[in-house]
Design brief:
Strand order of the largest sheet: 1-2-7-6
Order of helices and strands: HHEEHEEEEE
Radius of gyration: 23 Å
Shape: elongated
Number of helices: 3
Number of strands: 7
Distance between the termini: 70 Å
Strand content: 25-35%
């Protein structure tokens, strides 16, 4: 066993599965001007029958299904089955105008953003005696 494999026993390609479960869709997110972009790896799929994208509140759900061809294989590292990922969208995401395109094995979802998000605010924490605490005179 090499020093590297002892220090990092998990192959980096296995990291998404370790973090999100074995059937996770790998994604990247970034902002492009006034658009939030989510890109997902989905190679070798028919987008009309194998990919579903839905929105529930501010959560974007991506679901893909890869079915196995029935061929005798001596060896295969392909992953088959249902794969899913939920992405939390920014608070200023706009439901109208969301688009999804599939090109060369990459699903790209573009979500329009409206204005700036109002930053959160601090909420002060106060103290009080515990309920039922005896009062001493």
């Amino acid at each position: 066993m090499s020093t590297t494999s002892r220090l990092f026993p998990l192959d980096l390609m296995q990291l998404p599965g370790a973090l999100f479960g074995p059937q996770a869709v790998r994604v990247e997110e970034y902002t492009d001007g006034d658009t939030h972009v989510v890109r997902a790896e989905a190679p070798g799929l028919d987008p009309e029958k194998d990919i579903a994208v839905s929105l529930h509140g501010n959560r974007l759900n991506i679901r893909v299904e890869r079915t196995e061809e029935r061929i005798d294989k001596a060896h295969s590292e392909f992953h088959y089955g249902s794969f899913a990922r939920t992405v939390q969208l920014p608070l200023n995401a706009q439901e109208d105008g969301i688009t999804a395109t599939y090109v060369a094995g990459i699903l790209e979802i573009r979500v329009p953003l409206a204005g700036k998000v109002t930053p959160g605010r601090e909420i002060p924490v106060t103290t009080r005696p515990p309920a039922g605490a005896a009062k001493h005179k």
